[in-house]
Description:
about 130 residues, alpha+beta, eight-stranded mixed beta sheet, Glyas_Bleomycin-R_OHBP_Dase, dioxygenase activity, oxidoreductase, Glyas_Fos-R_dOase_dom, Glyoxalase/bleomycin resistance/dioxygenase family protein
Amino acid sequence: MEFLSSRILVRPTDFERSRGFYAEVLGLAVYREFPGGIVFFLGQGLLELSGSSSGPPSANIGIWLQVRDLAATARELTARGADIVREPRREPWGLTEMWIADPDGLPIVVVEVPADHPLRTDVRGT
């Protein structure tokens, strides 16, 4: 299993307040923005704010892991004893996602970025 990219997912209780904190207080640079979310550079990784939550902070955090082949990864994770919380499926935002959880219930989304998705588009020349 090979992980190509990763990020920490945060579902803030107040999106604008959290956006201000990460952008202005911590001074994180923006990697990309999309409707309902923003991704910041976080050293060697990424931090994504998207959605919202009214639960405790521990319920608002997850891990995002990108893989080349989600179907093969699902088979490998199942063989290694991982419980698939949500089977792989194409999401409205264009990514193919599957959800698992660590032993404490921390959500982990395993993602395949399809070839036609904007994350694979080089926009430097535009």
